[in-house]
Design brief:
Strand content: 35-45%
Structural class: mainly beta
CATH class: Mainly Beta
Radius of gyration: 14 Å
């Protein structure tokens, strides 16, 4: 980045129903605005993230990503 500026970064571990975990790295605005609220076990829906294989598989947000906590869909209640 120009002038020594760094993008904000936040790492989150997400799990599927079977308990398998993967790290999600949020960058920039996603890192700054990500808020789980008071929910002890929130549902996090991500779309258009990049899958990388650096020290194991992980996910990275980018400018085209969508990250939503507790989306207003039927499946959220089921989980």
């Amino acid at each position: 980045m120009k002038n020594g500026m760094h993008k904000q970064q936040r790492n989150v571990t997400i799990c599927d129903e079977g308990g398998k975990a993967i790290n999600l790295t949020l960058w920039g605005t996603f890192a700054e605005q990500f808020d789980l609220g008071s929910d002890e076990h929130p549902v996090v829906a991500v779309k258009r993230v990049t899958v990388s294989d650096f020290n194991g598989k992980c996910l990275n947000s980018n400018e085209n990503s969508s990250v939503v906590v507790n989306p207003a869909i039927k499946r959220t209640k089921e989980l």
